[in-house]
Amino acid sequence: MGARTKSRKRALDVLFESELQDRPVGGTLEERRSPDHEYPANDYAALLVEGVIDHQTRLDALIAEHAVGWTLDRMPAVDRNLLRIGVYEIVFRDDVPDQVAVSEAVELARDLSTDESPRFVGGLLGRIVEVKAAGEVDAS
Is the CATH code 3.40.109.10 the one for domain 3-133? Predict the structure, then answer.
């Protein structure tokens, strides 16, 4: 597993853990930044979590707009947070190729979520890539 793949997994851990503990998005990041933590969040994981925190309203709006038949609340928590990370990388990170963001999210969904999740996550992120390429998504 590559370094960024591990970082994405750690970022997902932080976002998921925060949600399970009924804390704000990324609310467990500071604890995870401690080198004494059993599974510490490295710099790229922290950057992803902070990006999701900073852009949560925009990320959630894009996800809701393109998740046909699904609301954010109905999605499994793993999928919802994977989508936030994936959309953040697609829309706001120029150093990550869009297809890498999609494939990484799909792999994590395959490993950590429901049987239907990889297809759902891949389809929704693929749609975000399409609308971004058509100039219908901006990073503001």
Answer: no
